[in-house]
Write a structure and sequence with these properties.
Layout: E1 7-9, E2 18-20, E3 25-26, E4 29-30, E5 36-39, E6 58-62, E7 65-69, E8 76-79, E9 86-91, E10 94-100, H1 103-113, E11 118-121, H2 123-129, H3 134-139
Antiparallel strand pairs: 1-2, 3-4, 5-11, 6-7, 7-8, 9-10, 10-11
Length: about 140
């Protein structure tokens, strides 16, 4: 018999995950999982493959705040439901809209990772790339 040794969600794609005892499943998958991603100014997302230092960025959800921390840096706190400019971003080969988390987040990520970057809320992207709704599950054999 198989057993689950641990569960993790990754609120910011390619940054450190959060160990959880359980999670709610939403239309985009596990709650909080890959809700945000880091993109270059042209909207192309980045991962640890090209930016291994992303593994040093710890992520926490503290009530209504997203908290990012990295060695030697003050933590960055943002509202989980931040408003911002909506702009086109690219995930793998799919285009979608991301909601920018603002200049403070961009400055923090740029300082930590050493190049101009933006943080975007991207839950709509995962619905487009990997549909996960209960309707889709019922349609599959």
């Amino acid at each position: 018999m198989a057993s689950v040794a641990s569960l993790h969600v990754y609120p910011v794609k390619s940054c450190r995950g959060i160990a959880v005892g359980s999670f709610r499943v939403t239309d985009t998958g596990p709650e909080w999982d890959r809700r945000w991603m880091i993109v270059r100014p042209g909207g192309i997302f980045i991962t640890q493959r090209s930016h291994p230092a992303m593994a040093t960025i710890a992520v926490a959800i503290d009530g209504s705040k997203l908290v990012l921390s990295a060695p030697g840096r003050a933590p960055l706190e943002l509202p989980v439901d931040h408003a911002g400019r909506s702009w086109p971003v690219v995930v793998w080969r799919s285009d979608c809209l991301g909601i920018d988390a603002g200049d403070e987040a961009a400055a923090w990520l740029t300082e930590v990772l050493g190049e101009p970057l933006r943080l975007v809320e991207a839950s709509a992207c995962w619905t487009a790339v990997f549909p996960c709704s209960s309707d889709n599950a019922r349609q599959r054999p």
